């Protein structure tokens, strides 16, 4: 649970009651305090607290995933003070609602779903704050490029690869701005994507290791497993959430595969080279190594630059990096540069 900035406020009206509801379009949910839930469901606060306690004790929901501490302006006497108060997301709200009054819970869920759909698909909440957040994300991506460009491991050729990546990213960003008024988001992606089995990935890495060792470019530590890191990584990429793939597209799987192998260090040595190899191998397995014009979606220099870019990136910029890689792959697949 972390303190967060205030989300946009919307109004939920039920009969003679009106409640200010925090809308969070990034997480596709809404947030309410316990006091607000008492108004919506017409119960005492003790009842809401009891139900929430039971919900978490029973394992119906995870507390960490459904609670955030948000700053709230409250009137106390003649003063207005800022307090940090626990807010509960839509999953927790509905769980409480089903335990006290399912009809009202359904009404609230219908209202919340409609509002979320309107804001997410029709862009009714686009405002200056959203544009500023967008600009900060672009600045973060460019800052990563500048940082990587200063790396001693980056030669002039790799620098040209970085320029290529930046130009692709910038063009993708402008395209998204034209169609979505400046909102950087995941691109239209190709559903599916077949990941290698652990045995296939291990065999491919062993073959690469033999070649590199024969050329004196690697030692026996190269791509040697650290525990079950590679198995866990591939398992996580292939997992489902509520029956749907957690990473539903070729672009998403490829981007996360590259990122996780570099950042999670599943091998004793050669994580960046192994990541780049598995990334290319995955694209090849899924017929995405070449673009619509029959050209490689990324050349050796560009791949080296992209790998360094991920390695140099801060963990806080993970989503920026993932979107950058996905947009690059989607753009080349559609023949755009």
From TrEMBL:
Signal peptide: none
Domain Fido: from-to ranges: 200-327
Database matches in PROSITE patterns: FIDO (PS51459)
Family annotation (Pfam families): Fic (PF02661), Virulence_RhuM (PF13310)
Name by which UniProt lists this protein: Fic/DOC family protein
Organism field: Ectothiorhodospira magna
